[in-house]
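Task 17 of the worksheet. Students: predict the tertiary structure of the chain below and write it out as structure tokens. Keep your answer in the requested format; marks are given for formatting as well as content.
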Amino acid sequence: MKTKMISVFVILVAVAALFVGRTVVAPPFAQAAISQGINPDQMTAQASKGLASFDDRYQAHIGVLDTLRP
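Model answer:
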């Protein structure tokens, strides 16, 4: 039983050593994708025309916490 555990341990250490050795010799690398960016003109052309303006939405929420003031 003890010999079997030792052999399993030796196999695990050998596999770990192979993995570490491969990583040290030829490390994996990643390449970043080239970003195409955002075209603001296209976003503006595809936007909905019936959206409320920021000021309209902001004014709708002013005064919500006024009831908490003493």
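Marker's comment: Residues 4 and 10 are 10 Å apart (CA to CA). The mean pLDDT is 79.
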